[in-house]
Amino acid sequence: MTSANPPVSSKLIFTHGAGGTLTSPAIANFSNGFSRQLPVLCFRGNSNLGSRTKMFSTVISNQEAPTSLGGRSMGARAAVMAATDQTKHLVLVSYPLHTGKQVRDQILYNISPLVKVIFVSGDGDSMCDLPKLDEVRSRMKCQTWRVVVEAADHGMNVKPKKLTEAVGIMTGEVVAEWIKGNDDSRREGRIFCDEDGEVKWTGWQRAQEETPTSHTIAPNDKATVKSTRQTEATAKRPRSSTKSDHSENKSASKRARKSTDDVDKRDTMQDSVSGRTRAARRAQPN
């Protein structure tokens, strides 16, 4: 008689986007950073939202009381839908809040008030407008935190490209530290690249706080970059009003939109196809 394997314990169960894999840079970098602080289990699924949600349930049943679920892009949506009464934390990386005129906010409003939610979004993510996200967060029943990654697109890519890995690792470390313990009064933070090419974390701040609070995450190897206090000058970052700078910023914005993670566009296509199918069914005579 063969006995069943005992459940294992992972602090976070995490999955990828609609067309990604476990080796996609955005997943690999985040998991690398997170696992330096806490254990994480990542699983692979197909691009069907319902199927991915069911896979969460299967993975959860083989874990010892998992309390944190998460994912990036479509995987983040599946994590929200798979949450159970035991779920305490939801980690939503690059949550695809909107595509065209469709806003994917209803499932966020259904999250239990007992769950704590953290959003990790690039300010160049064309699928998650930050002011819109602020509006949605204000209407959610649960407590929410947000990490904004400066100049990052939907795939958490930044320029220069060589800093993308360090940025992804930092997001994982910040989220792991948040799961260890969080301050209800400080729910906003930013990850940015300074003029010397270092990736830094501002620490958690109050919503309208101008001077960031220092918060350090100890580096474990060369791939990790130190987290220090952002200077007041960096926090305020005056914007140039010259014509040349305006043109440069406009071009950078266009490039960011074009570089949005192509694999996650399957999520958008899937929703469109599903919508057309439902419309066709309603049009058929009884």
Helix proportion range? 25-40%
Q: Terminal Cα separation, in Å?
A: 54 Å
Shape: globular
Q: Helix count? A: 9
Rg: 19 Å
Q: Report the major sheet.
A: 8 strands, mixed
What order do the helices and strands follow? Answer: EHEHEHEEEHEHEHEEHHH
Strand coverage percent? 15-25%
Structural class: alpha/beta
Assembly classification: single chain
Strand arrangement within the widest β-sheet reads 2-1-3-4-7-8-9-10
Low-confidence stretches: 210-263, 272-286
Number of strands: 10
Mean pLDDT over all positions: 80
Structural account:
With 286 residues, the protein is of the alpha/beta class. The chain contains nine helices and ten strands. It has an eight-stranded mixed β-sheet with strand order 2-1-3-4-7-8-9-10, with helices on both faces. The chain has a two-stranded antiparallel sheet with strand order 5-6. Helix 1 (25-35) links the parallel strand 1 (12-15) and strand 2. Helix 2 packs across helix 3. The longest helix has 19 residues, at 265-283. It starts with 11 loop residues before the first strand and ends with a helix. The relative contact order is 0.14. Mean pLDDT is 80; it is low at 210-263 and 272-286.
Task: Please render the helix and strand layout as text.
Blueprint: E1 12-15, H1 25-35, E2 40-43, H2 49-61, E3 68-72, H3 74-82, E4 89-93, E5 98-99, E6 102-103, H4 106-109, E7 116-122, H5 130-139, E8 143-149, H6 164-180, E9 188-193, E10 199-201, H7 232-236, H8 243-258, H9 265-283
Parallel strand pairs: 1-2, 1-3, 3-4, 4-7, 7-8, 8-9
Antiparallel strand pairs: 5-6, 9-10
